[in-house]
Amino acid sequence: MLRTRTLLAPGLALALALMLGGGGASADVVTYNLATANSDLSGFTGPYAQVAVNRADNKHATITFTSLTNGGYTYWLIAHGAAAVNLNASSFTANLKSDNGTFSKFTSDNNLSEFGRFNLVVDNKSAGPTDRATTISFQVTDNGGTWSSARSVLAANSKGQIAASHVGALASGSTNFKQTGYVSGAVAPVPEPSAMAIAGLGALGFIGYGLRRLKK
To answer: Where are the domains of the chain?
Structure first.
């Protein structure tokens, strides 16, 4: 019994430290779903793609677009506007990290369907949907160094959107797209559990076990 009491004090301290101080130690990543489609994709099930923002520091982040599969279709990233974001930066640079070798241009566009203007757009090498990818990743640098968190890397444009993509719906076993269109996502991120918070809950569970031992 004495041994159990001895373990409880440091266990409680560890749990509190992990849960209260875990934010500074956990990875600074936020993920957004692109779940709103224009009329071209009416009847197709979303979300269609996911956008992960991984902030390294106040100036550097990696943004990764990943296609999703829903309703029997995989939504490939294609053509003009394959990956578009509205960076929260007045001056920035960008470099492609991974794109399946099919995308080569960064542009700014004033009209990606009804989703508005995005200040960083990844375009296909060709005008059509021949080149396609399931993942596009690029590194961005805020020359002003203003990004305090992953959530601050992107900002809503005039239409309330932070990211968009031009996608093609491809059924399993098919080689041709059933339909193509633009998809976008507003500013609500997908919740991500903190690894340190999870560890803290585990420590609390350990303490609860110890308390039950004491009662016995």
So the answer is: 1-26+194-216, 27-192
